[in-house]
Each structure stands twice: as structure tokens, then as C-alpha cells.
Amino acid sequence: MGLGEGGGLMERFLLRWRTCRDRRPPRGGWPVLSWAHGTTGTADACAPSADTANGPAHDYLSITESYLNKWVANGYAVVQTDYEGLGTRGGHPYMNGASEANTVLDIVRAARGVDRRIGRDWFVAGHSQGGQAALYAAAGQWPRDVRLRGAVAIAPGSNMSQTVLYIKNQYPGAEVALPFLFVLVNGAYAADPSIVPEDILTDEAAAIAKAGRTNACLAQLQELSAKLPLNNVFRAGADLAQFERYYDAQEALGLTLKVPTLVAQGTADTSVTPAATKNIVSDLCKRYPNVTYRTYDGADHRGSVGASFETSLAFAQALRNGHIPDPTC
User: Where in the numbering of this chain does the Serine aminopeptidase S33 domain appear (predicted)?
Assistant: First the structure.
């Protein structure tokens, strides 16, 4: 079996789901929104199911609550997965497209097993890491007991392997990218144990990566790496080729989508740049015509979630009514 496949749904995935329980479901059951969250980290404490008001990943997870509640208010059952390896045995293969896509599907099937009022029609929406997950889900081949109708990818993550070059060359803003490097290294190690963090990172950097595997989420990695010099991250002569090949293989470039897809991007996003997202959209359009690209003036990386809600809802509603929203390919 591949990453993210197989049984153990009740053990591996977040079964916290929301639906309008006090209403009569529509014919065919509640349509489902499967939410793919953005980067929290790779430690078990970073799982959405483990979140609390004082949790280490709450700074990010809290911003999606109002977004998801709006979907519920508009008649959708919302399910949210823990990605593979978050909150359970084993590591989290961060940004592994196949693994993420399987988890956003599996949580839909698990929820239907809990409450048969949940319908078979589902949509996937995700932000950042979850945006990449949404694109992989849109390109998947899925079982017939559920039917994927469309996908929403908000600021989908890309250019992962270039983080190495960015930090090595100390480009402006490389300090912002540094905490993500530790998540990337840990994710690669989880997917391919031959990519050993201690082989490519200095002792100081490797200690931060280890914290990211045990109890530190993205916000804590930002604090831990704040005083780490950029010239003291990689071991001298470290062979990073395998790490870079792994993440090159996880890019959304080359995917063939199978359902209408909305890609949303904030113009003020410096974490996932508009240029990077536009490059993905241009590539996807080469093989599938029903891609809609929308930008949101002044929205930064996290702000793009709320800014894109109305467009995303209208996109899903149009598909439910049998219309394909205006493609931009």
C-alpha cells in the first residue's frame, strides 16, 4: 500500500465534523466539504484534532474556524482530516501529494460511516499545504461510493526544494523560509528514512528539526530558529540531491485534473507568491480546461482564506447546480 492508503480510519484521522444537525438534510444527504489544512508542523501535537485554545498550532488553526463555520451555515457538512502521521504512530510525510489526497478522501468516507445523512457528493478545499492537497485530490481516481464534484486550492504550496537554495544564498526573506525547512526535512525523513536530518543539517539545526518531530509546531520552530545564522544550517558538503528530488516529485506541476478547480491567491502573499501560483495554473491548464484562477488584492498568505470564501462558495454552488464556473484557461 502507498502512503496514506488503507484502513485504520478511526485511528489516523480527525473525526471532528460539523453539520447542520438540526435541519432536515436535502435529498441525497448533506454535501460535504473536506478541508485540508495548511502547514502546522510534523509533531503529533500539531494535529488539528489535538488543538486547544493554548495549543502549539492554534495560531494557525484558529483562523480557519470562522471559514469552516460559514460552509456549515450554507448547508455543508464539514470534515477535517489529520494528515497521515499527525497524532498517530510514525512520522508525517509533509507535502506528499498522494498521502494528503488519500486522507482528505478517507475522512469523507469515515464521516459517511458515522452518519448516513451525509451525502456522497463532496468538495475538497485547502490552504497552502492543503491547497497542494486539493490539487492532488482533484487529479485522483476515487471509488464510486463518493463523488468528488470540485476542488478549491488556496495559495497552494509549491517550490519546496528551492527552500534550500533560498537559505544557502541568504536571499532577502530567507529567515522567513527557515522554519519551513525543518518541516520539509522532517517530512522527507518520514517518507524516505534514507533522508536523515542529521546528515544534512548542522548539530544546531538538527536539534531544531528534532524538536519539530517531538513537540514543536511551526510557531515554535519560528522561535527556535530565530537566532540560527543562515550560514549554520547545512553541513559543509552535505548531499542535498535526494532531498531536492523528493520534493521536486511532490510539485503539482504535471498533474491532470479531473474535476473543475478554483485556485485562489492573495496578491500580498509572500509565503506562496502569486508568480508561483500562476505558474502552477498555467501548467494545469495545458491538460485540463476547467480551471478558474482568482486573485484577492491586498490579501496575504493567511488572509487569502477568508478573502476567497464567497468565491469558493459560489463556485461549489454552481457545480451543484450543474454549471461549470467561468474557467480562465
Answer: 64-301
The pTM of this model reads 0.93
Classify burial at 298, counting beta carbons within 10 Å of its beta carbon; exposed 0-12, middle 13-18, buried 19 or more. Answer: exposed
- 48 vs 173, 180, 309, 323, CA distance in Å? 28, 18, 21, 33
What DSSP assignment string belongs to 275-302? HHHHHHHHHHHTT-S-EEEEEETT--TT
Q: What angle do CA 60, 99, 97 make, to 5 degrees?
A: 75
* CATH fold for domain 9-158+254-320: Rossmann fold (3.40.50)
Q: Where are the domains of the chain?
A: 9-158+254-320, 162-248
Looking at residue 50, its amino acid is: A
Could you count the other beta carbons within 10 Å of the beta carbon of residue 122? 28
Measured CA to CA, the distance from residue 257 to residue 288 in angstroms comes to: 6
CA distance 145 to 156: 27
What is the pLDDT at residue 4? 44
The closest of 95, 87, 135, 106 to 32, measured between CA atoms, is 106
Give 40-57 pLDDT, tens digit per residue: 999 999 999 999 999 999
In whole angstroms, give the CA distance from residue 77 to residue 68.
9
